[in-house]
Amino acid sequence: MSLRKGRLQSQYTIVDGLSMHSRVSTTPADAPVVVLVHGIVVSSSYMLPTAELLAPDYRVYAPDLPGYGRSDKPKHTLELPELTDSLCKWMDAVGIQRATMLGNSFGCQIIVEFALRHSDRIERAVLQGPTIDRHARTLPQQFWRLLRNAPLEEPSQAPLQAYDYWQAGWSRSMRTLQIALSDRIEEKLPYMHVPTLVVRGKEDPVVPQQWAEEVVNLLPDARLAVIPGGGHTLNYSRPLELARVTHAFIEATESHFIEKEKFNANSHV
Fold first, then answer.
1. CB burial readout 173-189, b (16+ within 10 A) else e
2. For site-directed labelling of 43, which of 105, 119, 177, 180 has its Cα 20 to 30 A away?
3. Are the C-beta atoms of 105 and 137 separated by less than 8 Å?
4. C-alpha distance from residue 75 to each of 18, 19, 146, 205, 211 (Å)
5. Nearest to residue 76, comparing CAs of 176, 147, 5?
6. For each successive 10 residues of the chain (269 residues), what is the average pLDDT?
């Protein structure tokens, strides 16, 4: 993996009459595609640190889903199936047939739903901090965990997220949170038949070790990587470590499912 940073450019694509913004790096032209899926209410802006590190080796795309970031805001808040269908149509529009998908937090829920609805379009998945822990599926529990996580994140992340929340608006933000809390991801994971790497920050209070291990055990073909000292949004606070394990995972699964005896995710941390 190169330690250089690539450059991503903004582009806008019309999907179902809505303009979708994305940050893209399309070289090397023959490289595999990685699509980064942002978390709840935020945008692709906080995915950039990881995207830039992956860009020298992959064609990297980081879209703003409809309703968030610089993308158009539909009148109603899109449900999970609608978000995944919009993502698939956006892939059609930009010419992506299949991709590795890397998501953070609620982005993992979107990827799992995508894998069930559009299994032919996803090669492998990297689920970084997958929510919602089924043992804490209430707003007070999640709010408390996020408060505990805040000191673990980079200070520069706060204004980025505040701006994204402002762009999304109160009503859309609250509805998206309800969608995330009501999603029974644990019932879907056994049907996600793609090689999957689950990544957790060792100090992440939003995704405890017990839940991360449960996610791995529910998936048909998965491994767990734990990043020392990391919180919930490794894509912003620990991008180099996340990029390294992602790169190793892609290389290990280029032509086959994970050879568990040969691929030790934590050896690449």
1. bebbbebbeebebbebb
2. 119
3. no
4. 11, 14, 28, 34, 35
5. 176
6. 83 97 93 97 97 97 98 97 98 98 99 98 98 96 96 94 94 97 98 98 98 98 97 98 97 67 55
- How distant, in Å, are the alpha carbons of 66, 73, 82, 134, 176 from that of 76? 10, 8, 11, 27, 11
Beta-carbon contacts of 137 under 8 Å, excluding residues fewer than 6 positions away, are 181
233 burial via Cβ count (<10 Å: 0-12, 13-18, 19+): buried
Domains of the chain: 9-268 (3.40.50.1820)
Residue 267's pLDDT is what? 54
**Neighbour order of strands in the sheet with 196-201:** 9-15, 18-25, 59-63, 33-37, 99-104, 122-128, 196-201, 222-227
Contact 132, 212 (CB under 8 A): no
Total residues found in the chain within this entry: 269
Say which residue the tokens 């992956």 belong to: 54
pLDDT, position 260: 47
Whole-number pLDDT of residue 261:
45
